[in-house]
Amino acid sequence: ARRAERRLAEVVDERGRLERQERDDEDVLREAEGWLADWDTVRTGLQTRIDSAQEAATRAEQLAVQREPARRRLEAARLRDELGRDTDEAQRRALASARQAVDARAHWLDLKEQRLNGIAAELAADLTDGEPCAVCGSTEHPAPARKFAGHVDREAEERALAAYQRADEQRAQDERRLGTVREALAAATAETGDTPTSQLAAQSDELEQEYARARRDASALHAAHEELRLAEHERERRLAGRQQAEVRAAARLTRRDGLVAEQASLEEELAQARGSAVSVAARAAQLERQVALLTDAADTARAAADTARHLKDADARLADAAYRAGFDTPQDAAAARLDDTAHRVLQRGLDDLQSEEAAVRAALAEADTAAAAQQPPADLDAAERDAATAAQRLRDAASARDRAARCCAELDRLSARATEGVRRLAPLREEYERVARLAAITAGTSADNERRMRLESYVLAARLEQVAAAATVRLHRMSSGRYTLVHSDDRTGRGRSGLGLHVVDAWTGRERDTATLSGGETFFASLALALGLADVVTDEAGGVRLDTLFIDEGFGSLDDQTLDEVLDVLDSLRERDRSVGIVSHVADLRRRIHAQLEVVKGRRGSTLRQRGV
Questions:
Q1: Percent of the chain having pLDDT more than 70?
Q2: 262 is in which domain, residue-wise?
Q3: pLDDT of 511-540, one tens digit each?
Q4: Based on the domain organization, do 475 and 565 belong to the same domain?
Q5: Residue at which a domain ends, from 323, 351, 384
Q6: Secondary element (H or E) of residue 503
Q7: What is the C-alpha to C-alpha distance for residues 204 and 77, in angstroms, rounded to an integer?
Q8: CA angle, corner 559, sides to 555 and 562, nearest 5?
Q9: CA gap 593, 309 in Å, rounded
Q10: Is there a single domain that holds both residue 210 and residue 85?
Q11: Side-chain half-sphere of 432: how many Cα atoms within 13 Å?
């Protein structure tokens, strides 16, 4: 009945535990259902954040490429503005130094002219009576010239010349500086155009702000990926929890039915066992008290009888013992008895001696003890040293084992990192090899590029073909149909190809290098190329005409027939409303060309003189 009562309590506790588990699982299911109902919305929101962050990262990469050119243009615009101010200042200084040089030169020439006018007085100052004159050789000097007021001597002229030279050097220096500043300004303007610096600064600031916003938006990509991963992990956990809760609910249903049946059976059994008592324990305690009372009564009766018998036997033994011990009565023996303290001391000493004797006999009886007794005495110091050495070796071995384990773990980690790095390196290496191969081909250094032609040379070669075709039209006329210019892709020695020109000689039918042309042929071939380039530029510029052309020198290398043909070509250009200017010292051109500008040198500088109409 006690076992049944304990089992009933366990059944009741288990049913309560099952009910609590059921309530907990219902909470889990309800929470999981509520969380999973919003899963699609949560996942869509996180995916939207990831897509937005990815787009921001792509936009940030694009903007990063645009930042450096915008920054360079802004710096070039600022340099352009600064160089513009420097150019104005350098131009003012160049004009001022030019005026000073002109004034100094005029002053020097005036002084020089005044000195020449008064040179007779300067020579007369060195005449001595009886000495020959340096001019006429006469030893008589009847009327030497006299210096007039304001006479200019050699020192004054030399000072004026030195001042003019210094002013001219300053002018040349200022003009060189002006040219340098103008070249730098042209380079800066070519990069930035006429766009105002404020506009470029605003564009650069806007680009930087947009790049910062894109970077800030893209920085949320990792967090969004991590949040989506955690959300998916949470979804898996909740799905697993819901499934486990459903499995536990099914198992609890079966278990609860069994517990209900078992509880009913136990309660029926305990109702019979308790009787009128409150519980089985109370009923058992009542029965145990009754049994104990009965047992005590029986034990007491037996003890009384035994005690009487033992008392009688003890009196007889006591008298007999006292008699054998030499006492007349037991009272005499009691009077001679030792006290308890003395008896305990003697008894303890006897017990110790007996224990020690037994231990010694047992040790001596052992085979190992007997064998050890036959051995020589042991060296305790050596044994202790060996033990200490062995303990140290054990500690060293344990430390080495720990270090080896750490090294193995570190090697495993490094091996995993190396494997991952190699796995990431493979696609990068393929991409690098493809880009490097393409770069080598465009740079003309690859073995696949048989002509070693750069990409820019390839592009320029197409333009050069157009220029050569346009130049051939003029060259045919200048050379009376003998020469034709063709573009060549042939390599020269170990160099590159793409921008070569050959000339086809109709007289021989062979193609040869332009370096084999004579001086005159080289001149009109160059002239034909220049005219062809002008035609190509006109076409490429959307029909904008090059209305003015200047040709400087080179006509002296042409014979009369070739010169006539070249001039006919230039006249045909004039027929198309173009102006052609020729800079030359060839005298024959003065007869052929009527409209002329002649440069005439003079003491006060060069002047222009117009001749013809």
A1: 79
A2: 2-37+222-274
A3: 888 888 877 778 778 888 888 887 787 777
A4: yes
A5: 323
A6: strand 500-505
A7: 12
A8: 80
A9: 179
A10: yes
A11: 6
